[in-house]
Amino acid sequence: MENLKLSWDDGIFDPTGFLHSFIKSMALSLNFSNLTTSPEDIVATTGFAFRMWVHKNLCPSAMSIFDFSLCKSTLESAGFSCHHISRLWNEENLEHSRRTESVQSIKNSLDDNIPPVVWDVGIPEWGLITGYNDVSEKFTYLSITGSIDEMDYDNLGRGEIPILSVTIPTGVTDKSEIDILKDTIKIIIEHADGKEWCDENASGLKSYDLLIDYITNTPNESLDDFSMKYYLGTYASLRYYAWRYMDKMSSLCTELNSVAKGYKKVYELLKSTYEVIVESSNVSDIRNTIISNISNARDEETQCVEMLKTNGELIM
């Protein structure tokens, strides 16, 4: 088949370049396939705009250690139908059958002009499959880095982190905007309260404390500049969409005005923290500024969640 012409330039705005790769990929897939006219909403309505995971040493893998079934359930919560195939660490006996199923599902999806969102294409992040060739038995993919390359059918789910996750949006349901909002608020609260699995990492509001602890107690020579940029860049970009969605929904529910303003402050605090880290030649010199900004972001987001717990009852 002829490869789908995809570029991240055709996707949604990424304030830092570190927007979470799953939801960035899904937004581009939905936009390309014309399944939505508002692809930016999916960042929030799947709950990703409000999620946060932190490893005690800021290992970047924390961003990908969550229940992969959320790839399907949250997309459905956002008003889309989808097909999801996964094969995790404890399912080695399913490797061949799940890969075979995935290869055929990916090809069917591409024939329908819908690029599938797939784990570990190019690097251990989500990206998009953009074409296939049955003669060479290779897929063409768009990596989150922007590179376009090929991979063997047989290498699907056998990358650097050998697990399989394929998510294919298939259509739009008749779920109303207000029902999507209600379920989004439920997702926000559950994640903020730490009720979503994330192995041994921190999630939700507790993530802020672990992030602050790392920056406070790690010796200067051991501070990981890249991981700090990666974390702050990811969460700043996500909170941008938390703000934009709540601002949009405040036209339906005026109770969300204050929530939108709160998430705007969270975004601005995290974005400015990301920027000072990028611009600094010595992160240890700005440690106090980083800690202060993150602490203020935590307090603002805590207030946002509390307002949702209170005002959410009025919406529901």
Inertia-based shape: globular
Main beta-sheet strand count, sense and barrel state: 6 strands, antiparallel
The percent of residues in helical segments reads 40-55%
Task: Tell me the distance between the termini.
Answer: 47 Å
Estimate what percentage of residues fall within beta strands.
5-15%
User: What is the averaged pLDDT score?
Assistant: 96
Report the top-level CATH class of the largest domain.
Answer: Mainly Alpha
CATH architecture of the largest domain: Up-down Bundle
Q: Helix-strand pattern, N to C?
A: HHEHEHEEEEEHEHHHH
Structural class: alpha+beta
- Rounded to an integer in angstroms, the radius of gyration calculated over CA atoms is 20 Å
- Could you name the CATH topology of the largest domain? Four Helix Bundle (Hemerythrin (Met), subunit A)
Tell me the strand order in the biggest sheet. 2-7-3-4-5-6
List the total number of helices. 9
Low-confidence stretches: none
Number of domains: 2
**How many individual β-strands?**
8
